[in-house]
Structure formats: C-alpha cells, structure tokens
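Final report, section 2: Outcomes. Of the targets proposed, Threonylcarbamoyl-AMP synthase is the one most frequently requested by collaborating groups, and we therefore present its record in full.
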Amino acid sequence: MKSVYRVAVELIKSTRGQRSTSARGEMRRELETKVLRLPPTSTGPRVLQDDRADGAEILSCTARALKEGHVVGVPTDTIYGLACLAQNSEAVRKTYDVKGRNGHKPLAICVGEIQDIYKYCKVKVEEGLLGDLLPGPVTLVFERAEVLNADLNPFTSLVGVRIPDHAFMRRLCQMCAEPLALTSANVSSHTSTVAVHEFEELWPQLAVVVDGGPIGDHSRLGSTVVDLSVLGKYRVIRPGWSRRRRRRKMNL
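The predicted structure is given below as tokens.
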C-alpha cells in the first residue's frame, strides 16, 4: 500500500504535468499560424479583389495580426517578405529574431501612397520622379523624419521606403494607417523566397502567412535600392528586379 506521502507526491506530479500540457497547448494556440490564400484573378497572379469577401477577410485578419504586434509573411511584387508595424519597437525586434538578422542591418518601410512618404522621410526630389518610380520594385532611400520610430534602424539617419506594385500590400498599409517594416521572408543570408512553402520553417513564428501564389519570374531578386538622400545626386546601392519598371532619366 502506498503511503499517504507517496500518493500526495504522485498527485502533485500529475497535476504539474496536466498544467504543463495545458500551458503548452495554450502556447501552441497562440503561435498557430494562419495560412491564407489570396483568390486568383483571370490572368493568373493573385491579388486582392474588391468583390471577393474572402480577400477582404484576409486583409482584415492580416491587419489585425499586425496591430496586435505580430510578424506576418506577405507577398510583394518582387519576393515574399516579413512585415510588422514599423512604429512598434517590440514587433521590430521580433522581426530580427525571426530572420536571425544582424541588428545592424536596416529594415525598409512600406507605405501605401506616395504622400505617405513625405510623413516619414525628408524627400529632396520632385514628386513627379516618385510617381514615375512608384509603385514598383524600387526601394528609395531618404533621410528619415523624426516621426519614424527611433528604434527602427537607430544606427542610421536614413531609411529605405517601398510602395510595392501589389494591390494587397498597398491596401494593407492603408488599413494599418502607418508604415510597415519590411524585409525578405527567409533566414538571414539564405536565398530569397518566391513561394510560401519556401519559408515554411519560419511559419511557427508568424501569426499569418498570406499566400499570393508564385511571384514574378523566379529571379529571386529583391527591389532595386536607390539612394536619393543627397540633393542633386543618386546612387544605386543594389540592382534588383526590374521587369515592367518604368524608366526615366533621373534629372535631379
């Protein structure tokens, strides 16, 4: 016959195990990733359609996850990306953790409209030039405005800004009403991804993964990065994906 002491010990261990299992279950539920597929158009690429309720629900779900401070996986016009609210310092930190990214490598921001750039950047070029380049596969680097989160790239006075030529991403920015911090959806230094299954190892750390189908021509190049922070000058920091890009001589 078991002693009262031994029975009590076994009971305590059993209770702890149940609590531990319950806690792990709650954690799994909290980290459960929603993989949401955008509806296809008749021409092939997947974009958000106004007349599709499921597309609107995906937009709403993704925006809600961002506002709750989560990191999400999203399609762009070049490659898949990881996004969070740029003004949320904890979310920015999570994004670095998800990628295993060096903390001294900057994140770009993504906005929905050209006029949004003027709020977060000190623009030194004419608006017509921005209109020729954006939306599109280009990241423009400007001096950052004071309103931008000081914890985002605190090691530099510059910031890269994007308006992807992608309806879902533009509307997501508009719904969040603030910039998204954006980086490629892959482990740092690994190959860029053009389909959601290619960064599946990151899914457990993401609240939402938006499947927009295969992207582009599979070149795996990110956006072309151009420094426009110096008045009257420009510098191509990184050549990138340029198909369908509008070309114009930069008369600065």
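The mean pLDDT is 83.
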